[in-house]
Automatic annotation (TrEMBL), chains A, B, C, D:
This is TetR/AcrR family transcriptional regulator. GO terms for molecular function: DNA binding. The keyword DNA-binding applies. Gene3D superfamilies: Tetracycline Repressor, domain 2. Coiled coil: none annotated. It comes from the Bacteria. It comes from Desulfomonile tiedjei. PANTHER family: HTH-TYPE TRANSCRIPTIONAL REPRESSOR SCO4008, TRANSCRIPTIONAL REPRESSOR. Residues 40-59 bind DNA. Residues 17-77 form the HTH tetR-type domain. InterPro entries: DNA-bd_HTH_TetR-type_CS, Homeodomain-like_sf, HTH-type_TetR-like_transc_reg, HTH_TetR, Tet_transcr_reg_TetR-rel_C_sf. It holds the Pfam family TetR_N. Keywords: DNA-binding.
Length: 221, 221, 221, 221
DNA sequence: CATGAATGAGTATTCATTCAT
DNA sequence: AATGAATGAATACTCATTCAT
């Protein structure tokens, strides 16, 4: 089952999938909308329609629940990335980038709450874990891109003198920012990255891929 | 006055600059170190050496105080950017970018608390405001860069076919990410952007500026 | 059966003796180690290896269970006293006292958990019952000693003018305090009634018995 | 002021004596009637007629409040003992004992709640401190009596061969039990140590003092 | 105008008890 | 008869905000 969720106590895992899903959705939504600290177990159980005692039987602490939700979000994202990598193996680098972006937008459309939670992990400062987890995730993202780059370099598609790791980090940041912008719809008013407008999206993708590929320097020079 | 701070009630603005500064410093430091939710008005007034009643007379709510502090942080950043723009007016674009980045690192070194507050604003997590302020700030950042680009295009330094606004947004994002990474020192372990190591920093700057200028596509093609 | 235990619902009494004993041991141990309030039915059922529902079928409430356990502890103590009385029937009073004390220490060594529960009953603190049960127990203890005294008086061993009931109460208190001290090992540091040190114990016994027999007044007077 | 109470935060100590007293009485009564664990801060503030926040401003934690109350009770008892010792300096030992007992009964009449708290300290197991405090208090009680005995021995009033420390402990226990019995009125029904009945009390005192002085052995022997 | 004591709704978490299976 | 998931009132404690002095 796509949304299944191997976390929490055995008690939780033995719940009916419907109930698991109800609790899970409530939790994701609570954390996504309020952040860790502001999320309230009271409000969560109200939303989930279960009793206060139950949530603490399922996940012993608020912290545990949060960890479980996060881990889940991370797993989904990773799985998604892996799949895209597989599907784009043979494509030239620019097209791979494009597919990566497009599939990212799709993921966001399909899993807005998961996305919210994931982005919270990647930034907040509010979340209850040291920076190690963040460092690790950032690095994994960078490495994912570094791998794509490395492969493209070895195919002769890209300049051979580029600093693969640093450029991996930078491109990863670029994509992440774009995805986050798409998610938050910040660009909605003014910069126009409206979700419904596929032409807008196409332009963003093209501009981004072009920037990465060609830079901005005048050819004349 | 440089540190003055047009926010809070009239009552606050009529305070002696010294007292304003004391309160301001205490507030910045409290929010910077603990985030919005965790920041404690109790602890804040203790640090500021004023009474609990007073802070609520100056700023009606915690929220108001936070907004005021943020506004201030934003003003400082803008002022900094304006200054850099003025100082680099005549430089070629790549060098301008480099100076921009370098001065950003410097700003962070000099105003770590302000930076903390500013980055808190730019990531929604814990902070209590709708997206409007964020949209506005992002746009301003983008526009700042779009202006630089536009000028460079008109000088013939850059390709004339680039989408100035979108590219402005993208480059802005790139720089911001780099600055945030520098600030959080996440890259410290593994990607090496250590504050004390100027060679590392030079490499990051060079790689970034080069990426923006030339992209990554193989020359051969 | 020695360990049988006439309490709880009929349901419980119909259980196999082995299961009764398992439950009983778990309960004694839980209450003894944590006191009434802190004792956890959850932890108890885990120890006993039965289900939460069952314990509430056997004993309707935590309170009921505690009462039953206590009753049991009291029965064991009484039975012990009866036995000692029988075995010391023919001894002179001071020796009877001594035997009584020694057998008390022995009982504590052999049944530390039972002792813990029993002492909990005798000190109101945490336990949830009115004073009636305590009054009754104190009286029984006093009467036990009053009987010994009466018999000794009728044999001419003791002064015939003593107030048998009051003295019974006082001596009972003295013995109880000594036993409790032994149990809690409070005297361990400083007053030295260390369990392992039989010389110490002998001295305590001798001093106590002597005090009771001769008092402390100077012979000279 | 007799009931004044040098504990709690400065905030509490600066309260009006009436309010201090109200809070103090509520706290003593809560702990006295329910023991430490069972005492509820909620119920306490309801009784005291103050807000939940206030009690935690006065005493940072439940534990702190309990410690303060206890310390107070102990100080009162000690002070009382010191006074009696002073007033009975010149009396022969048996009369000193009698005065000690009588003044103990009086103290209980006057400070029933303090007594409750003090007795809780001396027993419960429920109270949140290691046994050190208990050991210390027991020892102090014993030493108080040992001192009286030593002095009486040096005056030739008592047998010179008695084990001063052990006997001090035993007599202390005897008096304490008597006082506790008086307090709890356990003896009320059946053994008759009724508070209102001074003849009963006289008999208990006489019997106790006589037992201590002469023991129970027949003169004939 | 400054103060800081008082407030009370809020927090996460526990646990005896119930009841449908 | 046995189970164990669900319950919800209870716990200690926090903290932004108010308001009388």
């Amino acid at each position: 089952m796509d949304e299944s969720f191997d976390a929490g106590t055995e008690l939780f895992r033995n719940l009916s999938p419907e109930k698991q899903e109800k609790v899970f959705q409530a939790a994701v939504s609570e954390f996504a909308s309020k952040g860790y600290r502001n999320a309230s177990m009271n409000s969560l159980v109200r939303t989930a329609g279960i009793s206060k005692g139950s949530i603490f039987q399922y996940f012993k602490t608020k912290r545990n629940l949060f960890d479980a939700i996060l881990e889940m979000a991370v797993q989904r994202v990773k799985q998604h990335l892996k799949q895209v990598r597989g599907e784009t193996e043979e494509l030239p680098f620019p097209e791979r980038l494009e597919k990566l972006l497009r599939s990212g937008f799709q993921f966001i459309d399909r899993h807005p709450l998961l996305t919210a939670v994931y982005f919270q992990l990647l930034q907040s400062g509010d979340a209850p874990f040291g920076s190690e987890r963040l460092i690790q995730l950032r690095r994994q993202g960078s490495e994912f891109l570094s791998d794509l780059i490395e492969r493209a370099v070895s195919r002769g598609e890209l300049r051979s003198d580029i600093d693969i790791h640093r450029v991996g980090f930078l491109i990863n940041s670029l994509l992440e920012t774009l995805l986050r912008a798409y998610y938050t719809e910040f660009l909605d008013s003014g910069l126009g990255l409206y979700k419904g407008d596929s032409k807008e999206l196409d332009l963003w993708i093209k501009t981004t891929v072009d920037l990465i590929n060609f830079g901005i320097r005048s050819n004349a020079e």
